Amino acid sequence: MEQLPIFFQIKGKPVAVAGGGTVAARRAELALRAGGRVSVYSETLSDDFCAISLHDGFRHVARAPTLSDIQNCVLMFSATGDATADREAGQLARQAGVPVNVADAPDQCDFIMPSVVDRDPLVIAISTGGASPVFARMIRARLESVIPSAYGRLVSLVGAYRERLGAALKEPAERRRFWERVLEGRVADRFLAGHEAEARVELERALATVADSASSQQMGEVYIVGAGPGDPDLLTFRALRLMQRADVVLYDRLLPHGILNLVRREAEHIYVGKLPDDHIIPQEQITARLIDFARQGKRVLRLKGGDPFMFGRGGEEVEVLVAAGIQVQVVPGVTAATGCAAYAGIPLTHRDHAQACVFLTGHSKGDGLSLAWSALVQPRQTVVIFMGLGKLDSLMKEFVAKGGDPKLPVAIVDNGTRPNQRVVTGTVETIARLAAQAELQGPAIIILGTVVTLRDKLATETAPGAAGSFANKAGLSSIQSPV
């Protein structure tokens, strides 16, 4: 992040505003709404100050601010509309050691004013770090349309019961789980439907039984969640919801930070990634840790790239967890095959090219890799190989040796759906050499089949001038060889 987002307490504290126009009025209004004692320094005030000038915390000083005016303030805003005057006011603030915001001059600001969605006491602030205030306002407009005004009253209701719940439940984790049940259950439903009295009755009933429910809820649960191939936009709503509930997360090597940042910030993060042929933490130990955390009463998130049941060992983990009596939720993810193929502009099936699609992995349990080659070399089908980049040369040679067409088109999608996605296309007999020249690092998906020849046509029609890549608009690269 370029800046630290914080909510600053200014209730009852002095705030200085330089300027008498519309922008200065908006700054003064926000500071007054937050409880600040606002002094506005300007020879004249526009009509925008008519309403706020009646506020008890408002004071007008008909001159420019001085150093002594600012020294005791906690914040200062400068919005005079004059670049020189604003710069001088900012310099005064810095001389006084007071954080300052200078309107329309991000390089002179110690802090930036976000766009605000106000559902008091619920407040949402949106900032682009000064890069595009217009875009921040667009996001605010969308949030305004989807967040009911009743949310603020619901937050107030919850706040009124915090002390009672704190007396009944001493553990923070137990209190958090209680409020999650309340805010995702009947209490919130009745409140938001306008039946506030019924909601209060439901909440009182829940509080009356809170001690019993807490003592009976000793066992935690495990969420096995597919995070997709890399683009955070491909996460499901259910995955996001469980990611925000977790007490501890065990995550894989292939997950980008953009997805990990969506996990609840207070959750404990544990890396259990594996490198090819180098399993730092054995699978048995990972599963044992899942069981141990769940038996401690924690909600454990097992976050995997792609889909947990598509070569992700999710089935092995569920099998052991169920045998241990642990409650498990499984959330499917967009598998790397479908996600990467789509972002590369390659349909896995097509009536003119492939009526079947076969998924296989370049890794297996134990030594060696035994494949049903007779089924893989069939015509009019697509073969997708997961985790095969390290064995690409031997896989392609074996494919030809078992009767496969050496001229069959092949594509490798490296870091698919991510900003650094690259696509290499060739044939069975050339793809290993091309991949080595491109120095692909993985993770990668290998696609064999005549559907690869559709890549240029479909990508060109979808994104004209995009050099044969759906995603080139986002800066993704494409490397091709005649097929």
List keywords for this structure.
19 helices; Rossmann fold; alpha/beta; globular; six-stranded mixed β-sheet; Cobalt-precorrin-4 Transmethylase, domain 1; five-stranded parallel β-sheet; 4 domains; 483 residues
What does this structure look like?
By secondary structure, this protein is of the alpha/beta class. A hairpin with a 7-residue loop joins β15 and β16. The protein folds into four domains: 14-113, Rossmann fold, CATH 3.40.50; 149-213; 221-334, 3-Layer(aba) Sandwich (Cobalt-precorrin-4 Transmethylase, domain 1); 337-364 and 372-457, Methyltransferase, Cobalt-precorrin-4 Transmethylase, Domain 2 (2-Layer Sandwich). A six-stranded mixed β-sheet has the order 13-14-17-15-16-18. The protein has helices at 22-33, 67-70, 83-96, 133-146, 150-160, 162-168, 172-183, 186-192, 196-208, 210-216, 237-243, 257-260, 283-295, 314-323, 336-344, 373-376, 392-401, 431-438, 454-462, and strands spanning 14-18, 37-41, 58-61, 75-78, 100-102, 115-119, 122-126, 221-226, 248-251, 268-271, 299-304, 327-331, 357-361, 382-386, 409-414, 422-427, 444-448, 477-479. α8 (186-192) runs antiparallel to α9 (196-208). Mean pLDDT is 86; it is low at 460-477. Helices cover 36% and strands 18% of the residues. It is built from 19 helices and 18 strands. The two termini are 44 Å apart. InterPro entries: 4pyrrol_Mease, 4pyrrol_Methylase_sf, 4pyrrole_Mease_sub1, 4pyrrole_Mease_sub2, CobA/CysG_C, NAD(P)-bd_dom_sf, Siro_Cobalamin_biosynth, Sirohaem_synt_dimer_dom_sf. Then it catalyzes the NAD-dependent ring dehydrogenation of precorrin-2 to yield sirohydrochlorin. Finally, it catalyzes the ferrochelation of sirohydrochlorin to yield siroheme. Pfam families: CysG_dimeriser, NAD_binding_7, Sirohm_synth_M, TP_methylase. GO terms for molecular function: NAD binding; precorrin-2 dehydrogenase activity; sirohydrochlorin ferrochelatase activity; uroporphyrin-III C-methyltransferase activity. It comes from Rhodomicrobium vannielii (strain ATCC 17100 / DSM 162 / LMG 4299 / NCIMB 10020 / ATH 3.1.1).
